[in-house]
Amino acid sequence: MDIIVQGDAEWLANRILDFELSKEAVISEIKKIPLTLREKAFQTILKNRTFHGGILAEGSGFLKYGENGKGIHSRWYPATIAKRILNLANIADRIDFRCDDGLKVMEEFSGRCGVVYFIDPPYTAGGKKAGKRLYKHYGLDHERLFRACENMEGDFLMTHDNAEEVKDMARSHGFQMRLVPMNNTHHATMEELVIGRNLSWMDGFPSVHELNAEYAYRATKKKRCGKPLKADTA
Ligand SMILES: C[S@@+](CC[C@H](N)C(=O)[O-])C[C@H]1O[C@@H](n2cnc3c(N)ncnc32)[C@H](O)[C@@H]1O
């Protein structure tokens, strides 16, 4: 993301489009010591798209089977990835990328209405191991996160592990929950939780799809402030 904000989106998109993917080519590429941040960004995308479950943590290996048995090719869609990067470049001047503690940043904006937070924390609540294995930075005070969500003026949407500890925290802070299907690292369909103050709008969507829409961006009127009302919790 930093690279896109710094103006290297086109370089990165072209690097992805020109790369001829094979296991040997990936090994030789990621062995190189990156001399620039943009080269490091390319290596990171390459690993994320060809390693098992997109896991970058130490000990992770190449996708063996992947989606439909296509191995390392199964998540390498160069044209789509390049397009997503170029789409982001269109709004780069609105992005402030911070390498920081998300909780601290949330607390900084806590008093501002009109701010909306999408929160996707590591799944480590209740001593769960999944988040620990997947991420280098997995330690998180989940109770503090829920408290921050309750106290802030703006609204939020959080995705989280479908675990009893998480549901207990969501209930005790008066939030709603919905279950949505997701595919895990092993391509099994599981359910994860969506948590928010009022999720009744989700009931109108029997399934969720990523639409292949052209991105359009325009100035929008600032919404009237006022803390969203909590509805009855699920
Ligand atoms: C479930 S992943 C998010 C994945 C992301 N939404 C995506 O689509 O790539 C959770 C991430 O939170 C990061 N993380 C853990 N504690 C954090 C903190 N205090 N502040 C910011 N990020 C944190 C982890 O390093 C991990 O990358």
Tags for this model:
single chain; 234 residues; alpha+beta; 9 helices; 35% helix; binds S-adenosylmethionine
Structural class, from secondary structure content?
A: alpha+beta
Helical content (DSSP H or I, runs of 4+): 25-40%
Q: What's the helix-strand series?
A: HHHHHHEHHEHEE
Heteromolecules bound = S-adenosylmethionine
Mean pLDDT: 84
Total count of helical runs of at least 4 residues: 9
The total strand number stands at: 4
Into which percentage range does the β-strand content fall? 5-15%
Question: How many domains comprise the coordinates?
Answer: 2
Distance separating the two termini: 36 Å
Main β-sheet description: 4 strands, mixed
- Cα-based radius of gyration, to the nearest Å: 20 Å
Contiguous uncertain segments of 5+ residues: none
Approximate shape: globular
Q: How are the strands ordered across the major sheet? A: 1-2-4-3
Structure description:
The chain is an alpha+beta fold and 234 residues long. The chain folds into 2 domains: 2-94, no CATH class; 102-204, no CATH class. 35% of the residues lie in helices and 12% in strands. The protein is built from 9 helices and 4 strands; from the N terminus they run H-H-H-H-H-H-E-H-H-E-H-E-E. It has a 4-stranded mixed beta sheet with strand order 1-2-4-3. A hairpin with a 5-residue loop joins strand 3 (176-183) and strand 4. Helix 2 packs across helix 4 and helix 2 (9-18) packs antiparallel against helix 5. The longest helix is centred in the N-terminal third of the chain and has 14 residues, at 37-50. It is globular and about 50 Å long. It binds S-adenosylmethionine. Residues 101-103, 120-122, 135, 137, 140 line the site of S-adenosylmethionine.
